[in-house]
Amino acid sequence: KCYRCGKPGHIKKNCRTKFSNKKDNMSQNSKNKEKEHEDYNEEVICVVSECLFADGDLTGWWVDSGATRHIAKTKEGMIRMENLSSGMQKVYMGNNSYCDVMGVGTYRLNVGGTSVILTKVLYVPSMQRNLVSVPTLTGKGFEVRFVPGKVTVGKHGRTMFDGKYVKEHGMFKLNEMNKSSGSAYFDCAMN
């Protein structure tokens, strides 16, 4: 959001808005400062790089090292969820926009005949992808390893799930879970 004109999609130094005189400029700056203070009241609880996803496959879960929380775009796997009012919490996007968080809950991720339980998952229906947050996982002691073409997630030397690199999106998409690992519980609560 631009702090000069108040419009989303650019920042002040790139603003093309011209003011007719200093009085208009000062008036606009006052409005922007008021708006800026209003914005501090909104709780921004997550940052993601969603701007990379313009089209393509919308299914599955994607590993995102820039996301600060796990994000589900549907309620389909939610075991429990607390609904939130629109605007109560927001996710900051990599393209300088915001998305409303409509709920927070526990998500059962079923892959390869086994399940992973993700906690404190944000329900954001306006997202185009489901995202698994690398910082959330590593913050809970999980090891996330990236090698050319592959990512693995595990603990104590045991791989719990992996993914493959999808070149057209520049990210890793989760594959089926390692069948020998059974189910895993990812206590990924982050405030």
From TrEMBL:
Keyword Zinc-finger attributed: yes
Keywords: Metal-binding, Zinc, Zinc-finger
CCHC-type domain span: 1-16
Pfam families: Pol_BBD, zf-CCHC
Record GO terms (molecular function): nucleic acid binding; zinc ion binding
InterPro entries hit by this protein: PolX-like_BBD, Znf_CCHC, Znf_CCHC_sf
Annotated protein name in UniProt: CCHC-type domain-containing protein
Organism whose genome encodes this protein: Nymphaea colorata
